[in-house]
Amino acid sequence: MGKTADPAPRNFAVNRQAQHLYHLLEKFESGVELTGTEVKAIREGKVNLKDSYAVVKNQEVWLIDCHISPYAAGSRFNHDPLRDRRLLLHRREIDKLAGRTLEKGFTLIPTRVYLKNNLIKCEIALAKGKNVFDHRETSRRRTIEREVQQDIREHRRRHT
Question: Widest CA span of the chain, in angstroms?
């Protein structure tokens, strides 16, 4: 039997605000060091990336303020919902991120938590904050693109 293509990764959480508030420059895939009840809660979709970020401390990358709700059947073995979690990256990637986050205006933002090959992964992005005029420019560009697409559809409809 031949191998089939891997199915699309299943997203458990997506940080939609990150695209709006930051210029996402470079993305990295990392593993997450989790406890058993955290894994079960994430598989139920009980993870929230809003207001979370990552930092480099002591040559390790940590995910801060990522809320994973307690697992319903976890009893006394449940985890702390807001505990810091270590992200698993290669040494070269950690060194690169440590150097870039020291520059003014750069930060690490988690963009999504997903399942890949039965492992829970976190995608983090090296990001630079947007200014108010950047928000306006993004909104203006999106409006123009939408109007152009509408005009193209109208044109095709009339000439079909």
Answer: 67
